[in-house]
Amino acid sequence: MAKARGKVTFKEDLCKGCELCTTACPVNIVVMNKEKINIKGYHPATVIEMDKCIGCGNCATICPDVVIEVERIIEE
Amino acid sequence: MAKVFERTKGLTDKPFHYCPGCTHGIIHRLVAEVLEELDVLGKAIGVAPVGCSVFAYDYFNCDMHEAAHGRAPAVATGIKRVHPDSVVFTYQGDGDLASIGTAEIIHAAHRGEKITTIFVNNAIYGMTGGQMAPTTLVGQKATTAPYGRDEKHAGRPLKVAEMLATIHGAKFVERVSVHNPANIRKAKKAIKKAFEVQLAGEGFGIVEVLSTCPTNWGLTPVEALKWLEENMIPYYPLGNFRTPEEVK
Amino acid sequence: MAKILMKGNEAIGAAAIKAGCKYFFGYPITPQNELPEYMSRELPKVGGVFLQAESEVAAINMVYGAAGAGARVMTSSSSPGIALKQEGISYIAGAELPCVIVNIVRGGPGLGGIQPAQSDYYQSTRGGGNGDYRTVVYAPATLQETVDLVMEAFDVADQYRIPVMVVGDGMIGQMMEPVEFKEPKKRNLPPKDWATTGTKGQRKPNIINSLFIDPKELEDHVLRLEEKYKVIKQNEVRYETYNLEDADVVVVAYGTTSRVVKNAIAKCEAEGLRVGLIRPITLWPFPDEAFEKISDKTKGILTVEMSTGQMIDDVKIAINGRKPVYFYGRTGGMVPEPDAIVAEIKKIAGGEK
Hints:
Chain C: It is an enzyme of class 1 (oxidoreductase). Chain C: Its EC number is 1.2.7.7. Chain C: This is 2-ketoisovalerate ferredoxin oxidoreductase. The complex is a heterotrimer of chains A (76), B (248) and C (353). Chain A has 76 residues and is α+β, with helices and mostly antiparallel strands. Chain A contains two helices and four strands, in the order βαββαβ. Chain A is elongated. Chain C has 353 residues and is an alpha/beta fold. Chain C is built from eleven helices and 15 strands. Chain C has helices spanning 8-18, 34-42, 56-68, 79-94, 121-127, 143-160, 170-174, 215-236, 255-270, 312-319, 338-349, and strands at 4-7, 23-26, 49-52, 73-77, 99-105, 136-138, 163-169, 176-179, 207-208, 239-242, 249-252, 275-280, 282-284, 300-305, 325-329. The mean pLDDT of chain C is 97.
């Protein structure tokens, strides 16, 4: 069965910490990075366990600040 | 690996000034993606409103014109009549379109102006600090309705999509929401159709987009999405009100 | 070209089309209706667009859009309608766009009346809209002058990227006189490379805007506008003078009133009185320099207006206390009689008052 794998990249300095992306991820790997404060003064969103990413693009779709880029690979 | 999501060429590089979690950013991006996908950025001319999205002229990567409060459809009319082959759109909030600009939007629709209007309804005046809008829900608190909107005093909120759908020249009318990814994708489809109606020369098209204002609603961005879903959608039902046969 | 007999409002429309105006947005109001009616007939014949807007507010904002899109565009109205257009005029001035606005003035305030008046002098020259801005204001006295100035107004608007007003009244709008359409003097007009035409993927986006949220940026913008207005003051002042050298009394009047004043002056001359005239053709910029030509022996200045006295403010600024300034006017649609003006002139000449 084909399995989609993905990779997301966050432009952290554009993030305003709104957390909408964290509600949209079907595999629950998008979290707020409480260890870090970005140039705008927010805890930016980031991804843990990137290997679980399915590249669905939900996080990027709901991000109001175009922070996220998504790549996808289909493995046969 | 293939890029499945990257910043559209329809947006400039300028970061949005909107508050955290404000869905204006999503709606800007959808419009910009549609302009890029339809390959019309080079002939697009956008009209920015007065309100939170007043700086829209800095974000869309096409010619832009900043209008007076509510007058975007009139400005767009002037532009479209001069350049009938261009793709002209207005981007307006609910104070701009549903209050001060009701005459302009109704008559742009009435004339069947071949323009596309993106109407962002977040049930409040954002830029000026959370005053009551014509779209504020009954019982919803605002800085000029501190006890909540009283229907006996201020009437019931205006349903713009339903109202415009009664006008012959309004050929495409749809209400969408951006409170989750599935609805955001539907919203983009509607926006694309509205522009296709313009490109086909059919007449006026409008997409009413239910949007949030976490700052003035006094909610977190995530709570605001939930509030939209639970309170706005029951009063402002989503769906298509008019589509020409050719675009269906 | 032979002269043709035309009605004022229609002559304005014909002049605009001759000047390359292709777009007209307006809303019905008396006494200027023949102008939009003419445009609705004639513009389609030259590939232009006439559009009747839902209001004066919408009409001026359509003008704002069309001007931003690079077109030669005009609107017309009458006093209360011009009041409604002030929002758009302020935006057009702030965004530095060219357009021509015709005001066939009627009496006010409020709904007022429909007869000839000059009580929009303040509205025209002080800017009824918000902010630090100016509009060039032409006040023709004959239909030939009206036609000439309307044609030139489009060039002036394009040269300086500024809204230009042409102010008449029901008399100018309704009367018939022979007119000839002559090309205005050639000006070097800059290309409209700022217009919203679509980038065609070949340039950065053009933005038409009057918003400058940073106060320093706004101040710089307004100061730049002010510099432009100074250049206009140097280059574009127009006025007519008569017999200033040895006048006992100098009368100041514009538009329709100046025609009555000329009759009054002729009557005075027949009785041996020496009376001069300053007739501002541009209400802004006001012809201050004409007042420097008034001789020392002149006893006083008489300002005659169809208002309760509005231009008199500019007359007093121009004369700067050198001579006493008197006023005579009728208002509300009443036109001054020559004999009444003669009586006022005699009072001043006799040293009365």
